[in-house]
Design brief:
The protein is an alpha+beta fold and about 80 residues long. The protein contains two helices and five strands. The strands form two sheets. Strands 3-4-5 form a three-stranded antiparallel beta sheet, with helices on one face. It has a two-stranded antiparallel ribbon with strand order 1-2. A hairpin with a 2-residue loop joins strand 3 and strand 4.
Length: about 80
């Protein structure tokens, strides 16, 4: 199964994500989040919070779990 998740137009494989880093200046978040992924540590920007990114991942996992992929059986 492919594990590509759409992060606002950038598709990233869940299995390649190393870290979700929230950018901070001083002690305040700037509103930018970087997803580090791939064998060479590529970074993709994402507007929002690390919690938003984790929500996108959780939603993808929920929608693409083996249980969700099974067809519903109709009763006769």
């Amino acid at each position: 199964m492919l594990d590509l998740v759409d992060f606002g137009g950038t598709f990233i494989s869940l299995s390649s994500i190393h870290a979700v880093v929230e950018e901070v200046e001083g002690d305040k978040p700037t509103g930018a989040v970087f997803i580090e992924y791939g064998p060479h540590g590529a970074r993709a920007g994402f507007e929002g919070t690390a919690k938003d990114v984790m929500g996108v991942i959780a939603s993808w996992q929920r929608d693409n779990s083996p249980r969700a992929a099974q067809p519903l059986l109709a009763s006769a």
